[in-house]
Amino acid sequence: MEREANRLQGSLDLQHGPLFKAAVFQAEAGDYLLLVAHHLVIDGVSWRILVEDLEQGYTQAQSGQKVEFVPKTHSYRRWSEKLREYGQSSALRLQREYWRKVCEESREKLPGEKRAGGRMEEMKSVRMELGMEQGRALLGEVHRAYGTEINDLLLTALGQAVGAWAKREKMAIYLEGHGREEILSGVDVTRTVGWFTSLYPVILEGAGTGDLGQQLRRTKEMLRRIPHKGTGYGILRYLTELSEAERQELEAGAEITFNYLGHVAGAGGREAGVSSGSSIAGDNGMLSPLNINGIMQGERLGFSFGYDAVRFSTEEIERLAAGYRQKLEALIEDCLGQKERVYTASDLGDLELSEEEIKLLVDREGR
Question: What is the pTM of this model?
Answer without folding.
Answer: 0.89
